[in-house]
Every structure is written in structure tokens, then in C-alpha cells.
Amino acid sequence: MFDVFLLMKIVIAALGLIITGLFILRRISSDKTKGQTLKHNISLIRNEKLLMHTNKKLEKKRQRLLRKSRSFRNKSQNELINKSKKLGITTGEMILASKIQMNLD
């Protein structure tokens, strides 16, 4: 009887650890994909000439990026620097993206 309860506790603890580990891995991987998507979108903004929108595909990407990143406008320089360090993007690109957004709004 004692062995059955001990075995049940071990199984429940192991399941809890597995679920917690999967949750943490999922959060880490989603942060990485968000950073890669942001890097790609910033490179698309750099490739597009902002005065003439000749490439419709890049223009659509830029419009979607601007809609999704409204939070850049209200952030201070320190918050942008911290976010760029976290995502592994150069600080200049983050500031450039926020300034482009502010100028286009």
C-alpha cells in the first residue's frame, strides 16, 4: 500500500516537471521566432524606398509591421535598447524602425 502511494506521487511529480519543461521550451522558442520575424521585417523596410512604394509585396509587409508594432512609438530609448539586446537585433535598427513608424503615422 505504501509503495503504491509513493509510486503515484513520483508519477505525478514527473508529469508536472515534464509539463513545466514543455511550457518553458515553448515560450523560449516563440520568443526566438518573434525576433527572427522582426529582423526579417526590418530588412524588408530597409530594402524598400520609402518615398516611392514600387514593390507592392514589400509595401504590404511594411503596413503589417507598422500595425503590429504600435508599441515602438511610446517606448523610450532605454526600452528600445533592452528589447534589441533581448532579440539580438542591433539597436540602430530598432530605433530606425521606431522612427520610420513615427514619421509615417
**Total number of domains:** 1
How many strand units?
A: 0
- The geometry reads as elongated
Number of helices: 4
How far do the termini sit from each other? 70 Å
State the major sheet. Answer: none
- The low-pLDDT segments are none
Output the structural class: mainly alpha
Tell me, rounded to a whole number, the average pLDDT: 74
The helix/strand order is HHHH
Helix content: over 70%
Determine Rg (CA atoms, Å). 22 Å
Portion of residues in beta strands equals under 5%
Structure description:
With 105 residues, this protein is an all-alpha fold. The protein has one domain. Helix content is 80%, strand content 0%. It contains four helices and no strands. The protein has helices at residues 2-47, 56-68, 77-87, 91-104. Helix 1 crosses helix 2. The chain is elongated. The N and C termini lie far apart (70 Å).
Itemize the secondary structure elements and their pairings:
Blueprint: H1 2-47, H2 56-68, H3 77-87, H4 91-104
Helix pairs in contact: 1-2, 3-4
Brief sketch in words of this structure:
With 105 residues, the protein is mainly alpha-helical.
Characteristics of this structure?
105 residues; 80% helix; mainly alpha; single chain; elongated
